[in-house]
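Possible regression after last week's pipeline update?

I re-ran a chain I had predicted before the update to compare outputs. Posting the input and the new output here so someone can diff against the archived version. Not blocking, just want to make sure nothing changed silently.
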Amino acid sequence: MNENLFEARYNVTKKSKIKKFYESNKIIIISTILILIIAIASVSFYSEFKEKKLTLLADNYIEAKVYLENGDRNIAKDILKTIIFANNSTYSTLSLFLILNENLIVDREELLRLFNHVLENNKFEKEVQNLIIFKKALFQSNFVSELELLETAKPLINNETLWKPHALLLLGNYFVSKKEYLKAKEFYARILSLKGLRKELYEQARSQLVFITND
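New output (post-update):
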């Protein structure tokens, strides 16, 4: 009997404390619950939004390729430029490369702006970023000055990356085209000093050195 009475008093006291705590902190508790609900809803909405955006970009990219196949190059170009400015690392890069491959834009300054936009407004895995930098250097090698080309290629030739030998070969070929053979030799020699490259890269560097020597 006494035990039941003690338990009943304990439960009443416990409930009273909980009620008192709730009354004292009601605003904080309600606010916390509301914040949690809003946060969960926001995460869910954002995930759904990202998924829809990705689907839309994929559809637009396919649509651009269809327009290209049908000869509607200007429409395809406009769609691809819109995708680039959507700042999705995958589809912005694919769209830029498709513009380059199909020669949809001939204005060099506009193409450089697109390259810079993609590099500055997206996050990439390191080797993907280096690929884009290499593509930019390859594009620039046809018209920019030595200093500009070296500045673009610097992240590739000064770091260990899959694209380092390709950048060195590009620079060697660039200086051969300028008949600056001493500079070209420096870059070809750097390729031959690298270990573990594919055989054809060594062969290209050696053949260019032979060409320089016999010229």
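Follow-up from reviewer: compared with the archived run. The mean pLDDT is 86. Marking as no regression found.
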